[in-house]
Design brief:
The protein has 277 residues and is α/β, with parallel strands linked by helices. The chain has a single domain, classed as Alpha/Beta hydrolase fold, catalytic domain (Rossmann fold), CATH 3.40.50.1820. The chain has nine helices and eight strands. The chain has helices spanning 8-21, 24-34, 73-76, 90-96, 128-145, 157-166, 184-191, 227-235, 258-276; strands at residues 38-43, 48-53, 62-67, 102-105, 149-155, 172-178, 213-219, 241-245. It has an eight-stranded mixed β-sheet with strand order 1-2-4-3-5-6-7-8, with helices on both faces. α8 links the parallel β7 and β8. It is globular and about 55 Å long.
């Protein structure tokens, strides 16, 4: 029979307290480590970005690039310095399900990257400096891995950035958005938020090249980015496909359907390549 020490409840309480005090960046780092990812720093144009990936099996081929969603500015300011890393880094878990060569490219100030002005994770979260820095950082990764092309995969606000980055990366083969905020102004108005005055809005930009594969994945129960809010923004993109999952909400339960979404992506890429021959 195992007898607990009188100190056991105290130790358990202390451990739970320490876990509760961990920042979102620290919790994400722990999860990344458990998933077998290593952490690197990659300089961009205006920011330093955290990169997570498994040791690559080889070089060349198309690289899948995962872009995380937004954090709550209100919760980010609870930490000193502020930590705008999402509390639930969904894209780390989805990337772990993807057998293709892939990387997780952190956004400015997330994951313990050098702090930056809060404008870059609030009203300017989709601003020109943010987009250009992500593009610069990704180009370095592409050169290092000798990638022949990229697939940009973004969740929520990461979907916004995927669309904006694709304009500047001619090597983009596909864009996949998951619960993507593709109509920034309409989204802010819908929720009664202050306009993101220092940000770009994909709904106000020219449509992406028709040669790109576009998959826009939406959840029927999503209240943060309701499906109706992005319908017109998707419809104006030539050849884009909208994948509707009636039981999913903004965050749950995308891992269960992610392999099937990746299958759809590969099929569309193969069909596009065949039609180009």
């Amino acid at each position: 029979m195992h007898l607990s020490s009188p100190r056991t409840p105290l130790l358990v309480s202390l451990a739970l307290g320490l876990a509760a005090c961990a920042t979102p960046a620290q919790r994400a780092e722990e999860e990344a480590t458990q998933l077998g990812f290593t952490r690197q720093l990659v300089p961009g144009g205006s920011f330093v970005h955290v990169l997570y990936q498994r040791p690559p099996d080889g070089i060349g081929g198309t690289l899948h690039v995962y872009l995380e969603g937004d954090a709550s500015p209100r919760l980010a300011l609870r930490h000193r310095p502020p930590d705008p890393t999402p509390r639930d880094p969904l894209m780390l878990r989805l990337m772990a399900l993807d057998p293709a060569p892939n990387v997780y490219l952190g956004r400015p100030c997330q994951h313990g990257a050098p702090p930056c002005d809060p404008v870059h994770w609030t009203v300017g979260r989709f601003g020109d400096a943010v987009v250009e820095s992500l593009v610069d950082a990704l180009r370095q990764v592409e050169r290092r891995q000798r990638a022949s092309g990229v697939v940009l995969i973004g969740y929520s606000g990461g979907g916004t950035l995927a669309m904006l980055m694709a304009e500047r990366l001619p090597e983009t083969r596909a864009v996949v958005t998951l619960a993507g905020n593709l109509a920034v102004d309409a989204w802010a108005e819908h929720h009664g938020f202050l306009p993101l005055t220092a940000s770009l809005d994909p709904a106000q930009r020219p449509p992406l090249a028709a040669s790109l594969v576009q998959l826009h994945v939406v959840g029927g129960r999503d209240r943060k980015v309701p499906p109706a809010l992005t319908r017109d923004a998707i419809a104006r993109q030539s050849g884009a496909r909208r994948l509707f999952f009636p039981e999913q909400d903004h965050a749950c339960c995308w891992a269960s359907v992610w392999p099937s979404i990746l299958t759809e992506l590969e099929r569309d890429l193969e069909e596009r390549a065949s039609s180009a021959r």
